[in-house]
Amino acid sequence: MLETLSNEPRDYAWGSPSAIADLQGRVPTGGPEAEVWFGDHPGSPARLGDGRSLPEARAEAGNPPLPFLLKILAASSSLSIQAHPDLAQARAGFEEEEAAGIPRDAGHRIYRDDNHKPEVIVALSDPFRALVGLRPVADTLRLLDGLGASAGVERLRADLAGTDASAALRGVIEEVLSGRAEDIVRDVSDAVIDATVPGFEQELDVLRAIVRDFPGDAGIVVALLMNLVVLRPGEAVFAPAGVLHAYQDGLGVELMAASDNVLRGGLTPKHIDVPQLLRIVDTEPGPAPLLIPAEEGDGEVFDPGVPDFLLLRYTLADDRVTVPLEGPAIVLAASGEVSVAVAERDVTLSPGTAAYAQDESSVTLSGRGVAYLARPGRSA
């Protein structure tokens, strides 16, 4: 089976008013357009061209829910700082909240399902900026050296001192998110507004936007501790379990395990459970986890090594590429015009539109443009 796949954009406040509409070549809705979901997740299930929802089509064929969710994401301001549990943590947390009788749609519910949520995002815009992982402490101390000597900045510098960087970072995150470091939040916020620190120009640009959009939020300090990643089109970053991340601005293709488990660490009015976050967060500092694609057949593969998904990219120049499938697949056109064919059925995709293939051994891509194909991972 091959059918087109469509959905309406989600109107989260951080969404871009124009990026997704421009990609799809249509008039903007007039509000923020943050994400378009191509999958069967109950939060926003996509619809097939024949009128059925994707969950209906899979259920009618006797298939379980998809293990992955593919999205177009467009940010014009920071998403919440967040991390996701690993599989064991998700199962334990879900069971605890189920036993406690917390409704799954409650605002303070954390584990809405029993799955993990590793995720990959590939930039479509130039640039796509994101905060991912905790920066080496020595580099953060160099940044702090340019923020003056206010009491809050000096306190933060002292808190980060010591031989155990992971423990120091964990302590700072716990301190600021628990509301015991308002002086640090205030003084850091004031300092970044006019600061000039060689080598940290883009970091300060991002921090100034965060201070403007989230005045007084404790997440400002958490953001200061994080790596800034500036992606160019086709470049990707992977956020595994426990890694703090917050996309800042830009347009991208995002692929993740099908889960809605989010533990927040600031830059949000939503519920933050500090003890739960500290149970799952990885505070080991290091470089951002960039994901470099590898050549595979006629395309490139972004494979983070999880069983739920992998993402393939094909750059077509009036040629034909046959892609073998192992399970269901979703094809998303990122540019140009892409034809997707199986047996005697084919559909043509324009940028920002998608097709779904089920129970097919392969699909053939042709045309001129760039297509992304999402499918289960190798060990699924």
Protein model, in words:
The model has no long low-confidence stretch (mean pLDDT 96). Helix content is 26%, strand content 31%. The chain folds into two domains: 78-292, Orthogonal Bundle (Phosphomannose Isomerase, domain 2); 294-375, Jelly Rolls, CATH 2.60.120. The radius of gyration is 21 Å and the shape is globular. It has 380 residues and is α+β, with helices and mostly antiparallel strands. A hairpin with a 7-residue loop joins strand 13 (299-302) and strand 14. Strands 1, 3, 12, 13, 14, 15, 16, 17 and 18 form a nine-stranded antiparallel beta sheet that branches. Strands 2, 4, 6, 7, 8, 9 and 10 form a seven-stranded antiparallel beta sheet that branches.
